[in-house]
Amino acid sequence: GTDAQNAASYLKVEQATTPGTATVIVAAVAGKSYLVQYTDDLTAGQWYRLASVVAKTTDRVEQVPDLQWTEGRFYRIVLLLE
User: Fold this and answer.
1) Per-residue b or e along 50-75, where b marks 16 or more CB atoms closer than 10 Å to that residue's CB
2) Res. 39: pLDDT tops 80
3) Helices (H), 13-69
């Protein structure tokens, strides 16, 4: 859903943390579904599902809580093809 010719069009992910938890904030594009994944070890190559962000009719910001957050955790967003 992003436009490679437009520098203002990009997938944005922010992480807000509080003790013991994290919230992954995803700027979701209308009509697109995403999978939020995490890993605690980038060298292992194993990613785990945190949540699904299902397609809706409007652009929006989704907040995905990670109640099992640990320091050094990495996140990625995978676009699901329809």
Assistant:
1) bbebeeeeeeeeeebebeebeeebeb
2) yes
3) none
Q: Which amino acid is at 48?
A: Y
Dist CA 27 CA 24 (whole Å): 10
Question: In this model, does residue 11 exceed pLDDT 70?
Answer: no
Q: Report yes or no: 41 and 5 within 8 Å, Cβ to Cβ.
A: no
How big is the CA angle at 10 (ends 26 and 28), to the nearest 5 degrees? Answer: 30
For residue 2, the number of C-alpha atoms closer than 13 Å in the C-beta half-sphere is 12
Q: Which two tokens stand for residue 78?
A: 């995978």
The CA distance from 22 to 42, in Å, is: 18
Strand partners, 48: 38
